[in-house]
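Quick board copy: two proteins, each given as sequence then tokens.
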Amino acid sequence: MEQFFKAIDEKIRKSGYHGEVSGKEIYAEISDEAEDQDEGNYLFMKKQNDDIMFEYRVDILEHNINLATLTIHTPEREYFIDFDAE
């Protein structure tokens, strides 16, 4: 799983975002949100602090979840990360 968490971190860094981020924490947050949801596509939003918000697009499947995209909203700009893209 550590490689998976590292891959999340790397994709976010490649977007140009240099704020504090943890692939492990992101995955834990998404897993918690998805726990009691039906299968489908969801948009989860998490306010990181007063200025930064993470917007996750998640696909919940029968036996797993897929973090499809993440948009990081900051006062300066938005960072878009497509985890499904190669």
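And the next:
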Amino acid sequence: MCFYLVYEEQVINVEVLDSDEPTVLDVYLNPSDDFYAYQVTLCYFHDPYNYPNNFQNNPTEGVSALGPPDGTCASLGVGGYMVLDMGEEGIIVDHENTTDFKIFEGDATQDGYTVYVSSNWSGPWVSLGLVTGTAEFDLANFSVESAQFIKIVDDNNGNPTEQNPGVDIDAVQHLIPIVVNNPPNRPYINGTKDGKVGIEYEYTFVSTDPEEDDLYYWIEWGDNNTEQWLGPFASGQELKLNHSWVEAGEYIIKVKAKDTFDEESSWGIFKVTMPRNKIVTSSIFYQFLKRYPFLIKLLSLIKL
């Protein structure tokens, strides 16, 4: 099986600003908006010769119809046919006011052939008519909403003993494919890393979405407190929240984003430290504080 996706090479230079902190590079690939036939489901090349001279004038193969047009064709022979599978990602969908797929017919002559489409490899088939040469098709003209399989049948006209007889199929292209939704990029967190117990600090959360979809944020503060899917926010729009911790220690803030199609990002993380405040711990004063616990919180707000 071959599924052809085309990506453009990119070179990205990354500057590491702080050797003590991890450097994260989020990368996603956008495939081109061209899908081609996924695999040959079946084919029948008509052969006018008998064994042992089979196909002496037609050395082509069915797989030559896969992928982008390259001048290498699958010649069906006079009266031959083939069924091509566009794959689940490349299902041809009717798009308003535009053609939906294109069949590239190679060779110097424009041969005739009939085209059928179906959602199942064995049919039932809907005929899109007889055409010659390279042709484009609009499913709306035949009241078809979508199709995964394309059947191409030679018009049974021509010399079966000529070199590469019958229609010559170079490629089948889905002109406007189903849009593949990508997850949001890993969110970033910015705010105070070292603070004091009981003090509220502001933290900023932000992510971007490859398709500019609106985003929701799930935030875990590391102290069993959670913000569940806050939003929606525009791609790239900052979310600012205040939070405080009631006990000294180290905490990991975690955040992930999801878009309007429920695609979730990887986790963004941010470590904060709430050190234990210095307080007088003589036995008399400590016993006094135990009698009035609200003073402990009050003292925690004062940096000694």
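Board note added afterward: The domain at 192-277 is CATH 2.60.40.10 (Immunoglobulin-like).
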